[in-house]
Amino acid sequence: MVEQFVGTWKLTFSENFGEFLKLLGVPAAQRQMANKQKPIFSLSVDDQGTITMQSLSIFKVTELKFKLDEPFEETTLQNKQATTVVTLENGKLIQNHTWDGGELRLEREILDGKMIVKSIMGNAVVVRTYEKEA
Q: Lipocalin/cytosolic fatty-acid binding domain: which residues (predicted)?
């Protein structure tokens, strides 16, 4: 079922992203720059089942390699050491980050050919919409 996420996706809509970044402690100048970005997201799977997710923007390239249901360590965008587990639940790709004093959940799903990404931290929710590139 991960196959539906495979490909390259471009951000087309973002709701509540600036407020979410503020909650994460991102400085105002960085929030302004981040809000103007239209990152490209790509996902691929190799023949051993290793998933590679990349997020590309003008300022940064982030890459994660993992297998479903296997915890791994990563450094978050806020420079925090986190344990992350990615699962597939009811057609959604769920990414749970936990670190000392915090938790962040990303839910990716395909609706009407678009990838909808919800980032949830406490009561704060960001919704970002991506369209698949040809």
A: 6-133
Query: Does residue 78 sit in helix, strand or coil?
Result: coil
**What is the tens place of the pLDDT at every residue in 51-63?**
999 999 877 788 9
d(CA 7, CA 82): 26
Q: Return d(Cα 20, Cα 76) in angstroms, integer.
A: 15
Token digits of residue 47 = 């023949």
Distance CA 80, CA 56 (A): 20
DSSP secondary structure, 63-75, as one string:
EEEE-TT--EEEE
CA 98/CA 27 separation, integer angstroms: 21
